[in-house]
Amino acid sequence: MGYTALYRKFRPISFNEMVGQEHITKTLKNQILADRIGHAYLFSGGRGTGKTTAAKIMARAINCLHPHEDGEPCNECEICKGILDGSLTDVVEMDAASNNSVEDVRAIRDEVNFLPTIAKYRVYIIDEVHMLSTGAFNALLKTLEEPPEHVKFILATTEPQKLPATILSRCQRFDFKRISVEDIIKRLNIICKEDKIQITDEALKMIAILAEGALRDGISILERCSQDANREITEDVIRELVGLPKLTYIRELVQCIIEKNAENAIKTMDIVINQGKDLDNFLWEVIKYVKDILVYKVTSHLELYTKEEMDFIKQLSEKTSKEELLRLIYELSELANNMKMSTQKNIIFQTGIISGCLKTEVRGRMAEVRRRRPELRGKMS
After folding, report:
1. What are 256-267's pLDDT values in tens digits?
2. Domain region containing 232
3. What are phi and psi for residue 232, nearest 5 degrees?
């Protein structure tokens, strides 16, 4: 057997195995138990949140020959196995990104009149449904509104706002939420234990944060980092493979900006640039670090940092104000946008950081002048 990607190998095969979507899985199981299954569903949400997985589980659950008492599929009967290995023709999975024409939908419209071969329902799972053309949506409308008794539609999309209102009104909509860092860590822990992957707790937290609510992205990052079976996955390993700079350079640059030290900021930027790091990712990390300092200054609490790093963040927070940190976040975010539109990222990045250092220094001096000479406040504001 060939190699199977981790996100496919550990794809949930029951509703209970799904992570972070209990509000949806509970409702779907109740509908199955009550035999009140809708004719069309719309699963919407960000990437990697379980939309297609839930659709496949749903297709098995409503067709299972020996369903469990809680509405779960048995995954052992002929139909469940046929859906799992893709050999059952009664469940059709279509990618609307590459099959978005009127002809593709007309083919479905012609097929729905035929009874399923061995399953109870013929199920059509249309992924990235927002990619269908206007003509394809129009061709789907009537079939979606009044399909035959033996046909069920499950539409999945990351951009529900692009769907026509006529399609939305014909579906039961379920919104999949971003998966929390804690839930991603729990799932990655299970995968690491079952696949015998050595990883530190700090590295797990970093992967969960980088996943940005998408479990599949987190599993993909874990897979990239686990190629060397003899090496334990640490934060430095992740930063090296993902292209993120070490935390040392991030904290040094933030310290330089807060302490108005443009000279040291240039030295730190030179090191990062010479290492060939992605400057867009580096700047994102800098913005996030400044945001964390602001959060600590407001709440006196932070997670996902070591005690040593927390002490350093506390020291930096005492050297600046909440207003100054907010200004930095806005200006660095504007710098990130400017870099995306420029062909000279290095120059824009370096001048933007130097400008941030100098503005901090200039504004600090102006505030001091206002304090000492109140009569100049109106003229200098």
Report:
1. 999 999 999 999
2. 181-242
3. -70, 140
